[in-house]
Design goal:
Shape: rod-shaped
Distance between the termini: 38 Å
Helix content: over 70%
Length: about 25
């Protein structure tokens, strides 16, 4: 398992999820 690859993908997905969540809250 390549942690760097997983972290990169997760970071991108999490960033997008957080962005949309913050936009919904506002």
């Amino acid at each position: 398992i390549s942690m760097s690859g997983i972290n990169k993908r997760n970071a991108k997905y999490l960033a997008q999820a957080i962005k949309s969540a913050l936009l919904e809250i506002q």
